[in-house]
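hey
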């Protein structure tokens, strides 16, 4: 047997010297060593292949003066240590020697097993598919279509996009408590949201722009084309839409300038109203002259006539009249007549009056008139006149002498 093996070795060695190429199972080698499988097809159970030396890690680590490109199969890494020439031997597999250490043949190096450094730009064509990074129910995805590129971040309780530079941080997130926010933190001193061109900046709700900021600085609420620095359109006629929660009609009066609106709705200053004061004209008496009252004409009550000067624009006049009289005599006919006291303005009877019935001689009566009348600018005369309106047995034309007990007649207006 040994002679046969030696003969085969000599034969192979001799062939290599003659042809400089060696073929196994073929007569026309195409390389230095060309091995053809004994059974290239079919269902034979015979083994075809190459068996390289099989050693454990300790044996590989112990080799010295190993030629570059030497290949082995490490069948166990339970021995030896992962140091020196065996620094890369961390699992069974094929290894080759690069002159310094054993290198794993076709190692599985990817983002799942190790870190790495890109040597240049890389392009991943998704062909309409989504690239997703998933952890349970949370995932981050990169979506590209023919018309859209989108980045998504979904979590069971929150989806967040975080941008940072040093200690400056911007977080944009939505969570399962129906909150959607954009926040800054760290040492950031300002959150600036806007445009870099002359296009408007808009805030919308329910799909409709509610606040618009134009490139000229005009701000509009309820309008997308504000024509002033701030324009508010409530959308309801005769309603400004502006409300001061802590400044109401019950707030104390303070100093300052009054505001109003012009025909276009612009807020403008208006003249402050002058302090209110009361102008009063009055006559009062407890000893006025007696006067005679009949049914034929109205007689001016003694001392009631007075002149009121009304300023430009006219005024509402507040009038209050009170009169107490004694009926001195008993007119012919001895009836129980009715007597009236009526307000007159510029000699014209008004609709303000009071009537009472006499109850006999030496009795007294009282009359009260209170009213408000608007008077135009100028001088006006006011007085109160009495007349018997129903004789009731008293002879027509017979006079009743009235002696004033007290009389107060006030006319006032607000400035």
């Amino acid at each position: 047997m040994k002679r046969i093996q030696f003969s085969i070795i000599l034969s192979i060695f001799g062939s290599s010297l003659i042809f400089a190429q060696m073929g196994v199972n073929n007569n026309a080698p195409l390389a230095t060593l060309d091995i053809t499988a004994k059974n290239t097809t079919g269902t034979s159970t015979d083994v075809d292949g190459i068996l390289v030396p099989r050693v454990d890690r300790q044996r590989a680590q112990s080799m010295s003066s190993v030629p570059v490109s030497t290949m082995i199969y490490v069948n166990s890494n339970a021995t030896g240590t992962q140091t020196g020439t065996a620094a890369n031997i961390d699992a069974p597999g094929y290894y080759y020697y690069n002159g310094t250490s054993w290198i794993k043949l076709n190692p599985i190096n990817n983002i799942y097993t190790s870190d790495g450094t890109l040597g240049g730009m890389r392009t991943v064509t998704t062909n309409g598919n989504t690239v997703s990074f998933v952890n349970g129910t949370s995932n981050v995805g990169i979506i590209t279509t023919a018309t859209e590129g989108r980045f998504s971040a979904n979590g069971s309780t929150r989806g967040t996009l975080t941008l940072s530079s040093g200690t400056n941080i911007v977080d944009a997130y939505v969570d399962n408590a129906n909150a959607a926010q954009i926040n800054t933190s760290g040492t950031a001193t300002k959150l600036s949201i806007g445009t870099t061109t002359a296009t408007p900046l808009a805030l919308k709700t329910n799909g409709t722009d509610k606040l618009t900021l134009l490139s000229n600085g005009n701000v509009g609420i309820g309008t997308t084309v504000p024509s002033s620095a701030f324009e508010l359109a409530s959308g309801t006629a005769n309603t400004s839409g502006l409300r001061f929660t802590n400044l109401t009609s019950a707030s104390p009066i303070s100093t300052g300038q009054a505001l109003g609106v012009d025909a276009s709705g612009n807020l403008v200053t208006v003249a402050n109203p002058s302090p209110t004061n009361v102008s009063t004209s009055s006559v009062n008496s407890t000893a006025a002259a007696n006067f005679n009252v009949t049914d034929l004409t109205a007689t001016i009550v003694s001392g009631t006539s007075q002149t009121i000067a009304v300023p430009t624009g006219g005024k509402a006049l507040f009038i209050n009249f009170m009169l107490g009289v004694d009926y001195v005599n008993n007119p012919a006919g001895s009836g129980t007549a009715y007597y009236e006291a009526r307000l007159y303005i510029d000699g014209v009877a008004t609709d303000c009056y009071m009537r009472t019935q006499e109850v006999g001689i030496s009795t007294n009566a009282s009359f009260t008139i209170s009213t408000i009348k608007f008077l135009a600018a100028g001088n006006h005369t006011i007085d109160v006149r009495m007349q018997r309106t129903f004789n009731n047995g008293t002879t027509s034309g017979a006079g009743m002498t009235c002696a004033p007990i007290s009389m107060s007649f006030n006319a006032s207006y607000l400035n």
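The longest strand covers residues 400-414. The longest helix spans residues 2-19.
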